[in-house]
Every structure is written in C-alpha cells, then in structure tokens.
Write a structure and sequence with these properties.
By secondary structure, the protein is α/β, with parallel strands linked by helices. The chain has 28 helices and 23 strands.
Amino acid sequence: ETNTFNSSLSKLRELGLANRLEEFNQAAVRNARASGARFVAGSLGPTGKLLEPLGALSFEEAYASYRAQAEALEKAGVDLFIVETISDIQEMRAALLALKDTSGRPVICSLTYNEQGRTLTGTDIFTAGVTLRELGADVLSINCSIGPEGVVGLYKKYYQDLGALGLPLMVMPNAGLPELINDKLAYTMTPQKFAEIMAELTQYGVQIFGGCCGTTPAHIAVLSEAIKKISIKYHNSDSSKKEVYFTSRSRVVRLSEIKPFLKIGESLNPTARKKFAEELKAGQENFLREQAKEQSAADLLDLNVGVPELDQARLMQKCVQTLTMVTDKPLCLDSDDPAVLEAALRNYPGIALINSVNGKQSSLEKIVPLAKRYGAALIALTLDERGIPDTAEQRVAVAKKIIEYLRTAGFPEHKVFFDGLVMTLASEPQAALITLQTTEALTKLGWHTSLGVSNASFGLPQRKNINNVLLKLLAEAGLKAAILSAATYRQIDQYTHAEQLAETVILGKDPNAAQYIAQVAAPEAAPALKKSAAKELSIYETIIEGNEAAVLDLVKAALEKKKPQEILDRELLPALEKVGEYYSAGKYYLPQMIASANTMKKAFTYLKPLMQQSGSAPVGTAIICTVEGDIHDIGKNIVAMMLENHGFQVIDLGKDVPADRIVAAALERKADIILLSALLTTTMLKMKEVKAKLLEQNIDIPVMVGGAVVTPEFAGKFGAHHTADAAAAVLQAKKLLKA
C-alpha cells in the first residue's frame, strides 16, 4: 500500500496543503514501487467527517475529494486502489463511484465494524457487501476496529450470505484490542496467536490477508506461512447469481424471500395526495415522515416528488435523505427525469429500484445508464413510441425490444421488472384480462413482472376489493412486484362476497360493473329514477340509467312530435348534466358516467345529421389531447365525448402528443379552443409549453387545462383556463367561445 491514507483533498485542505496533493500521492507511489512490491495499491482513507444527513459534508464534496486523490494516484501508476477504515456506507459509495469514474483498476472496499457487527452508521457487512457489489466493488474487506477474533465471528455469521455475492473477501484486523500499559496503549497479541486465529478465516472463503494497527512485519510473515499450508474453502455462489437485492443503509431485501410478491408502498406520491403536494411546496416533511412509518406492510417505499415548477432534483435529494433517517425500508425512486433520478441515486445509501423506463429509445438511452452506474433495478413499462399496445402479444413484443437493448448495454436482465400495464376497468372492462395474459406470458419467458395496480380500480367504489383480487390473480400468473396501497392490501385466502363480485368485474363478466356497484356502493350512491306516468323510461331517464339498448327507439318515437334540436336541448343535455352532478356528488361512479355518456352519444349520433339538415351549426371546433409524456386518457375521453354531445366538433389527437403537433393541428383545423389533459405532475409543464408555442406564433386561442393534479393556480400562471371535471369543461368552453 502507498502511504497516502491521509493524502486526500479534504485532509490536505485542512492543513493548507491542498496544492501539494499530486506531489504527495505521486511520491508515495514511487516509494512503494522502490520497495520491490509486485503490486502497488493506492490507499485512500476516510474524510473524517460524516456525510449528510448525518453530518455536514455533502455527497458531492466527499466525491470531489476522493476523485482528486484518485486522479493523482492513477496518474502515478498504481495497480489497484484500496479505500480503507471507512465507517459510513455512504462515504464508501462516494469513494467507489469516484474511483470507477477515474479508472478501470480494481477497487478494494474495506470498512470497519464495531463489536455488534455494524459500522458506525449502522450497516452490517452483508448489507455493505450487496450495496458495494452492485456498484462495482472488486473486493470486500474488513480492517481495523475489532481484532481477529471479532473478524472471524463476523465472517462466520455471514459466510453463506457473503459467499452468495461472489466477491473476493479480505481481512486486515488489528493485532487484537489495545491495552493500557504504563499509561500507553499497546497491542500485545503475538504474531503466532494472530496467525492462529486468522487461519480459521480460510474456512469462510477469505482469500486476501493482511494486518492493521499493531501488526508488524513479523505478524505478516508468520501469517503468510500459516495460510500457505491451508486450502481455502470457496463458496459456490452459482445458485445466487440472479438474486435481486434492494438495500437501505441497514437492511437487505431479497426478492427470493418475499412472498407472494414484492410490495411497494404507493403513498409518497403527490399526484393523488394533495397534502403531500402542499407540504412539498411549503418545504414541510410531516406527511413524508408519517407515511414512511404507516406503510409498515410494504417491502419498499415508492417516492415521487413531481410537483411542477419546483426544483424536483433538490426536492428528491432532500426527501431521500429524510427517509433514510426515518425508515430502514429500501426505496423505489419514481421519476422519468434523469436529473431527478441521479440526485436521488447519488444521495441514497443503498441499492434502489427505479420507476421507470419504457420501450421508447429516448427513455432507454437516458435511464438505463443511470441504473447501471448506481446498481439499481428497473421497472420497465411495456409501451413505446406507439403508445400502450392493445394486446398482450404486442406488450410482450415491447418487452423483448427492451431486453435486446439491455443486453447490448450490458445491463443484467434479471434486475428488470416488466410492468404489463393495466387500464381502468371502469372504462375498459377487458383491461385486466390483457394484463393477466401479459404477466403470464412474460413469466413464461423467465422475466420478472410488476404492476401499478391501483389504476385498475379508478372510478369504482371500495377500490381495495378490485385491487386485492387482481393482485391475487396476478400472483397466480407469476407477478413478482406490485406498487399498491400497503394500508389496504389483503392477501386473499378466501373471497368475501364483495371480492367475489370484484372478480366478475376483473374477468369482464359484469358489464359496466353494474352488479358490483349495486351491491358494494353505499345505498345513497345509486339514486332511484322516477318513472314516467306510462311506467316507461323517458329519453332523459334512459340516459341517466345508461340504457343504450333502449335510447334509439325512444329518440325515433320523439322525432314524430319534436324537432331534433328540441330533443337535444330538453332531454339529452339536461340528462347529461344531471349525470355530471351525480358523479361530482359521489352518487355515480365512473362506469355509470361512461354508460350514460355512451347512451347520450348514441342518441346524439342519430340526431346529428338531422340537425345539420335543419341548419344547426356546430358550437365550435375543439382540439383535445393528453400532453406529451402522459399516457392516461380516461378523463380526456370523457371530456371529448361530453363536448361532442354538446354540439362541438371535436378533434381528438389522442395521448402523449407533442406541443408542436397540437399547435399545428389547431392551425390546420381552425380550432376555437384547445383542451389539454395531464394526470402526472411530471407532464403538467408540457401544458405551459403548448401555450408558449401559441404565443410565439401570435395565435390567440383559449387553452383549457385539467387533470387530477392540475390546479387553478398552475393554469393561471401561464394564461390557461382550469376545469375541474367534464361537466364544468363543457360549460366553460361554451362561455369562452361566447367571450
């Protein structure tokens, strides 16, 4: 080893010698070479400071210190590096990343442990081994602190686990524990005793031996002779090469040990939790801390900080640091922004799961290198530039495309979880069947699968029934991980009545979830319809009921006495407005609203050509879409249907639509209004981009924005109009066109 333990930038800066860093490190390498040693290892010691959030030193400051010393040692021509006597896994991460960014030479990572078998900041040797292996460490070592007896105890305890990692193991203990003799600390363990104890480590797979404090050339000489006579017992790690690990500072989660699947708590996401969004804006952490503790049933915690117009990279870093102090659960880092992910990955003292990458080339090129560099696993969405595939076969094809990219990039495919995607059952009754087929097919190919399950139950009552039954069926199909509500998850052994009904919805056997809603929703949720005097439903009542089969006959009969416009104004539109009221009040759920809208559309489609013949002009032309990067379109589809039913000519551009295409379509179709939808906080800013491009071209068209995460305040900042729901969107659109 070089005598450079204290020749780091941080240590030399304290002495006013930072300008001599290269001089000292290069001289040390020359001296080591002059000794005749076969290999020269550049030694890097601790900074002497704790990293954030435990101390004041930032990760970037620690990284810069190690990087500067690594570059000096590399330039001097060392054969390998040894980072030693480190008591904080986060500091070791900073050093290892700096060395890997500087050189391709091997790196020995040597930490120091207390009598409880943990570092000063609480990491055991197996957790450290997993984290460092995934980051690219070449050798795992213990040095200093406890004597050889303690080291033997640690390796004996973790022999099986460490052997499974496949990393070479090394030891450099002190010559026992120091004793106070004549008011001075001294190491009294003899070379013979030292060698005798150390020799036992050959039975636990240790391959590299040395000594630290109190050891002398005599200790090393006797030790060398002793271990030459012993065969090292190597652990067969072949069976564990494809294990998937997640770590925090003090905990390891192994996928193979989690049954029935890895549970990832979904609560730390501002998209559907306004309180979290408000606290992120205010710089508060109460919700973050509370939810971290309350999701005790989860194996990992998903963290998303996507609040528009905030510095999400800084927010993510802060939240990650807070969570490492509050919980020992590993994290699932939820963002599609590489800068946000890297801020999290650098400051997270473990191995995380990234949520997510997808089959788009741009996504793969941005996210996969980050996962590879920081040792993270990946959730991969089975969608690409063409959007969400309609069939299981097409989703599997996207997964195969992703696998090919990962193989080329050298990313281990066993660390990927393919999300088969599930649409909302309230609007797409066959959605769960496609997801089940996708999950089963991917499992048969030998790949891990995951799912964000809560989307399936959106708009339905007692959502936990739908979610838990779907998870049971997915587990039977081979699901390995799920993002879910940890508080409401139940592992089902036997169905309740409500869960039996939920299964019929999932399997597509309950049209519009009618039976499920009728029996599971609160009694006041299904308003009774007043029948007409003739005991037959009117057009108005038929639309409220969502009875597509009956509406056309009633419309045709009404045309014998009424004009098309009169039927629209007095029957169809009032009925749809009443449905909107029911939905807003929680009396109707999404399936009922969609059924009513479809019934209305059927009637309107029949009346439309008749109204055109009579000279009725469209109210106006509306461009509608979900903005770029967002694939959620349920709300957008409902608004489009409502607008059309109210007499608008609707140009639906679909989902994941770039700003340039929206502006071009508005010009081409001479649009009177543009309506933009976004469900994700990460895509909301694309709305602002559309407005900016309109202003650049001096196009004065009203822009209306909406979605679960969109607020009036956000819309007002860039001159857009906010709408809370579909019914309000129609009324506001009409007002804007009259203005």
